[in-house]
Design goal:
Bound molecules: 6-diazenyl-5-OXO-L-norleucine
Distance between the termini: 24 Å
Number of helices: 17
Number of strands: 19
Strand order of the largest sheet: 1-18-17-13-12-9-8
Shape: globular
Length: about 550
């Protein structure tokens, strides 16, 4: 029976992989919906739901499919976080973040003068943390999965072995990174070809198919032990990397207590440390909760001003207090305490930016001393799953493990290489996030679920490095304060402030362009990135139907049945 199912899947995905599926950005379904960054991965997830799988089964299948069809961020060589909420009121959080190898040390990216060596934490084998995704998916499957493990990985094996047509966005990105792939990979692999990619080209990853087949057969031991582990170890030895067999064997994914923060009638369930996302989102919501935002028009500069000032204060706290909770004591409840958050905003004067130098971290109780991807799933049982996963930068360290066909992350750059020196997202940190053996680097990933009472309503999240938190924050406010529908809330223009640098980032194509002048006039230094974040969200609607919405900013799309 199991073999028959796999055969049916094989035929199905053979068909799927040779014709580019065109899926809607937003659609309502009756029995299950997924939203992910690539149409093939969305189709895989919805097929798993159709075969009787639950939201966690679908999420596992999407994670493996994205490792094949969205290799700039989807991964088995990276890590991520999952938030779970079901209709019975159970909530859960899974940490499958990468860890520093045991041989890592705090000065590993500094020269003899103590200065940060450019790019050392970003490219090449030394930039990689010990990958967490495969162990994470195995843990999720053990606790919540219902379909056989192999069945969830099989679509990814077929997509890797048979290939799939790449989208235009993917062709452009592969071309952009070609030089880097050639620089960091000397043996042939699917990525370091010299041809110019174009939309519709078939991308085949034979080594990755074999690695995935080992994982399908042996579970997470197919990655952390045996042939795959041997290939990683060999690669590390040859290229001066430091990940050892012991690091791989000992990697553990951890179930953690989710951050649960109330906002008016709703509860927001999100990721605790080692992500900073949940605490920061909680702080931001607490700082603005009493300010009657719904009475301030969306394009009124005062709305930008209140939110940006809250953001500056929260990122100042982030730089001081947040790090891996297995290594540093993070004052979680102190930081999210309503009184503390109100006090943090006490030097805020309406329509004035507080100068960066006048903001520092606060003193919470209990203190003792670009590229990522997000996907969301809703099943017919009323369960929501929200996963953000990453290699850190696009294609991580640009290193493909020889013979194993997958990209290694460059997550070591999320540590603070030196106190006060910004990482690739301009984020600074302190001792709490300094490199230590086996420690997890601080993250901004914020997979989130919004509930009312016991009932899960929305699952959402975003890529975007340090801008993930403010993206999720604004979509939550669009939903809960401005009562926008999910499509509007996701697609509305966004902005971002992270304290340092002292710049307000406003997306190009703001709905109201005059806002830029107004904010400039009151003293904000402004920059205009093309876009901020890229949200994938699902909703369980009042009538029980299921809505999926992919952000207009990416290839994200909905599939369901
Ligand atoms: O964990 C983090 O916060 C980062 N490694 C996320 C990287 C990211 O979102 C890149 N995407 N644009």
């Amino acid at each position: 029976m199991k073999n028959l199912l796999i055969l049916v899947q094989f035929c199905l995905y053979t068909f799927v992989s040779w014709s580019q599926p065109v899926l809607p950005k937003s659609q309502i379904f009756e029995n299950g919906v997924v939203v992910s960054a690539h149409p093939e991965a969305s189709l895989v997830g919805s097929q798993i739901l159709k075969m009787g799988g639950n939201a966690v089964d679908a999420a596992i299948a999407i994670q493996f499919a994205l490792a094949v069809v969205y290799p700039n961020a989807g991964n088995i060589g990276g890590g991520g976080f999952m938030i779970y909420a079901d209709s019975k009121g159970k909530i859960d959080a899974l940490d499958f973040r990468e860890k520093a190898p045991a041989k890592a040390h705090k000065d590993m990216y500094l020269d003899e003068k103590g200065e940060v060596i450019k790019n050392k934490s970003l490219y090449g084998s030394l930039a990689a943390g010990v990958p967490g995704s495969v162990r994470g998916m195995a843990e999720a499957h053990k606790k919540y999965g219902s379909l056989p493990w192999e069945q969830l990985i099989n679509p990814a094996i077929i997509l890797a072995g048979q290939g799939y047509p790449i989208t235009e966005r993917q062709a452009n990105l592969l071309n952009e990174y070609q030089e880097r792939f050639l620089k960091y990979n000397q043996t042939p692999n699917a990525f370091n070809s010299t041809k110019a990619w174009k939309k519709g080209d078939i991308f085949i990853q034979s080594d990755l198919a074999k690695t995935l087949a080992r994982i399908a057969k042996k579970g997470s031991n197919g990655f952390y032990k045996g042939k795959t582990a041997m290939l990683i170890r060999k690669h590390m030895k040859k290229h001066n990397g430091i990940i050892t067999s012991k690091d791989l064997k000992q990697y553990n994914a951890v179930w953690r207590k989710p951050i649960e923060v109330s906002y008016k009638d709703y509860s927001i369930i999100t990721m605790p440390p080692p992500s900073s996302g949940g605490i920061a989102l909680g702080q931001l919501l607490k700082m603005v909760e009493s300010r009657s935002l719904k009475n301030i028009e969306f394009e009124n500069p005062l709305r930008y001003n209140i939110l940006a000032e809250a953001e500056k204060r929260v990122y100042a706290d982030r730089s001081k207090y947040l790090g891996d909770p297995d290594f540093v004591k993070v004052p979680i409840s102190g930081l999210m305490d309503s009184l503390y958050c109100t006090k943090r905003m006490s030097n805020f004067v309406e329509m004035q930016p507080t100068a960066q130098k006048d903001i520092t971290y606060g003193m919470p109780e209990g203190y003792e001393s670009t590229e990522t991807t997000h996907f969301s799933v809703a099943d017919k049982y009323g369960t929501l799953v929200s996963i953000t996963t990453t290699l850190n930068g696009n294609y991580g360290s640009s290193v493909v493990v020889e013979g194993a066909g997958f990209m290694l992350n460059n997550e070591m750059d999320d540590f603070s290489a030196k106190p006060g020196t910004p990482n690739m997202f301009g984020l600074i940190g302190s001792k709490a996030n300094q490199i230590e053996p086996n420690k997890r680097m601080l993250s901004s990933m914020t997979p989130t679920i919004i509930k009312k009472g016991k009932k899960p309503l929305f699952a959402l999240g975003s890529p975007g490095g340090g801008t993930i938190i403010t993206t999720v924050f604004q979509v939550v406010l669009n939903l809960l304060e401005y009562k926008m529908d999910l499509e509007q809330a996701v697609n509305k223009s966004r902005f971002h402030h992270q304290w340092t640098p002292d710049i307000l980032f406003l997306e190009q194509n703001q709905n109201d362009e005059s806002i830029v002048n107004k904010l400039n006039k009151i003293g904000y230094k402004i920059e205009r990135p093309n876009f901020l974040g890229c949200v994938g969200a699902v909703q369980i609607r009042e009538d029980g139907s299921l809505l999926g919405v992919g952000d207009k900013r990416g290839d994200d799309c909905a599939a369901g049945f």
